[in-house]
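F.,

This is the one I mentioned.
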């Protein structure tokens, strides 16, 4: 019997089963239910009203976090299918995730993103800086392990392997910031008197997928690995952004991240083209004529014709072709420093495809993400988030919904109380947060009949 089959029941175990010493079920059932639990969760449904890049009122066409997550899941399944197709007789086949499993991981990967995208994330991190911080990936694990509605105490309670798959940065937030003395000193600054004067670029959170509150679940996920594998997998090394960062990811995470990058670099490009934010001349100069693309010309001018066609069908054909080129290049590499196959096997794109994908991601970042119009909306979302947090912190009994205030009131420490407020705001959609802001701060808006 293959090792993968021998370990299967260990990886399908749920945290609740672990605590109650219950037997695990077979993979086919568990991973199918993992996917179903994510799809039917409130956090997943709320992604339909959280921005990907553009404002929700721009058009029904443009992507939200929900449609982005669905596209990531579809690409993730395509990557697994391609790895099966080219993997005849190879050992890694026993360790590939099922379609149900990879879709569950991909659909869950953005559950923790707050309203207003990374702008909201930075604002929450600032307000929580003395109380455990905030990071979107760590909030995803918190939803899966604690906040989700499927179990009373253990959240959505996905299988061990699905939970491992969403751990993009297998490190605990507190341990990462403890290694940054400059940030530790910065944290001591008092709250800004006027948030409009606050330099939010100083408050980007570290890349850490675990809050200290979920340490027990994190250790349970890694429990099947050897001590040496765990040490290397969670090892923190300095990088050029000030915070230390982990260096490695599990097999399923590498597949999910490739799918996420492809969706970001190619599908989000489609939105930019459709909105007229990127024109053909700019594309020609900065992509088609770029030295990297000249070195790896993955498509010809016909692709450009279709991408910038006034017909949406032509654009869709071009986007589909680009995605297919990326997916068909996927292969498995081995990192022999690890013992366990789920850490040793790594999904990667071909050199040409990865180089061009990075070029596309940079193109989207420069000409879409950092546009003043987009950054302005992000700034507005930050201010809304900051003001809401400040008001809820000052007047929790009056302003928090009753069920949320009950959690706040039962919390055993100040850190736990602030985390309740953070969880409440992080779970808001853009629309809900904006409506609450108007109710609190706009004299002509709001009514006692508006339910919060």
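My design for it:
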């Amino acid at each position: 019997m293959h090792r993968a089959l021998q370990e299967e029941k260990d990886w399908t175990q749920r945290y609740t089963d672990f605590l109650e010493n219950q037997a695990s079920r077979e993979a086919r059932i568990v991973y199918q239910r993992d996917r179903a639990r994510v799809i039917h969760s409130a956090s997943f449904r709320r992604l339909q009203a959280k921005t990907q890049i553009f404002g929700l009122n721009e058009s029904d066409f443009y992507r939200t976090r929900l449609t982005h997550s669905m596209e990531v899941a579809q690409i993730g399944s395509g990557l697994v299918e391609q790895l099966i197709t080219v993997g005849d007789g190879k050992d890694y086949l026993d360790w590939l995730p099922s379609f149900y499993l990879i879709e569950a991981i991909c659909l869950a990967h953005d559950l923790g993103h707050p309203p207003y995208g990374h702008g909201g994330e930075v604002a929450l991190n600032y307000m929580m800086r003395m109380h455990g911080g905030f990071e979107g990936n760590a909030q995803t694990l918190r939803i899966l392990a604690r906040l989700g509605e499927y179990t009373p105490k253990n959240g959505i309670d996905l299988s061990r392997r699905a939970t491992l798959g969403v751990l993009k940065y297998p490190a605990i937030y507190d341990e990462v910031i403890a290694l940054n003395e400059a940030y530790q000193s910065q944290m001591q600054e008092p709250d800004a008197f006027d948030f409009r004067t606050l330099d939010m670029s100083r408050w980007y959170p570290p890349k850490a997928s675990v809050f200290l509150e979920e340490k027990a679940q994190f250790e349970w996920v890694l429990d099947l690995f050897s001590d040496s594998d765990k040490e290397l997998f969670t090892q923190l090394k300095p990088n050029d952004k000030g915070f230390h960062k982990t260096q490695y990811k599990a097999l399923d995470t590498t597949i999910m991240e490739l799918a996420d990058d492809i969706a970001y670099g190619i599908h989000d490009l489609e939105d930019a083209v459709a909105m007229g934010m990127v024109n053909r001349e700019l594309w020609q100069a900065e992509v088609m004529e770029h030295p990297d693309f000249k070195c790896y010309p993955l498509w010809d001018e016909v692709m450009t014709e279709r991408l910038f066609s006034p017909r949406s069908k032509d654009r869709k054909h071009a986007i589909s072709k680009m995605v297919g080129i990326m997916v068909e290049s996927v292969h498995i590499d081995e990192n022999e420093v690890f013992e366990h196959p789920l850490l040793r096997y790594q999904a990667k794109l071909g050199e040409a495809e990865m180089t061009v994908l990075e070029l596309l991601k940079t193109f989207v970042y420069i000409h879409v993400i950092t546009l003043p119009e987009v950054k302005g909306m992000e700034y507005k979302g930050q201010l809304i988030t900051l003001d809401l947090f400040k008001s809820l912190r000052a007047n929790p009994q009056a302003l928090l919904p009753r069920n949320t205030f009950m959690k706040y009131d039962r919390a055993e420490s100040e850190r736990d109380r602030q985390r309740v407020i953070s969880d409440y705001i992080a779970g808001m959609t853009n629309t809900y947060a904006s409506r609450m802001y108007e109710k609190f701060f706009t004299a002509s808006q709001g009514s006692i009949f508006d339910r919060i």
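Residues 54-61 have pLDDT under 50 and may be disordered.

Talk soon.
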